[in-house]
Write a structure and sequence with these properties.
Organism: Paracoccus marinaquae
Order of helices and strands: HHHHHHHH
Number of domains: 1
CATH architecture: Orthogonal Bundle
Structural class: mainly alpha
Mean pLDDT: 88
Number of strands: 0
Strand content: under 5%
CATH topology: TerB-like
Helix content: over 70%
Low-confidence stretches: 12-19
Shape: globular
Protein name: TerB family tellurite resistance protein
Domain Co-chaperone DjlA N-terminal: 26-142
Largest sheet: none
Distance between the termini: 41 Å
Radius of gyration: 15 Å
Amino acid sequence: MFRNLLPRLFGDDLPPRPLASQDAEVAIAALLVRLARSDDHYDQAEKQRIDQVLARRRGLSSDEAAERRAAAEMIEAEAPDTVRFTRVVKERIALEDRAGVIAALWEVAYADHRRDPDEESMIRLVAGLLGVADRDSALIRQKVLDDMGLSEN
């Protein structure tokens, strides 16, 4: 399944083919991994948070979520840029549902309970590419912080 996704994501010279909604979920998983790696500190807390987000989004078991994250780690490492992932998400997920993607990114960003400028920049980029306004992203961030029981640093 994931082996066939790479050419669909990165094959600019291939004719466009419809992407399954599962492809969008894999692209989201890869975005979460890319975000967690953006500060050059990809730790266990971030991996666990990614697994929790993936399990919650699609009702996966913890093992299935960990497998999806592992696949996303490989895909993310091969990706030349973030735009390819956001393009898949934008094509397959309605604008009103993209707020959930931004919330998932904020959850991963704060998994280590600290604010990192590299991760914030990455979320700002992804939000813009997905058509989510900065103000909306800031409101989503505050809600995620509240839900996680964290305060603004």
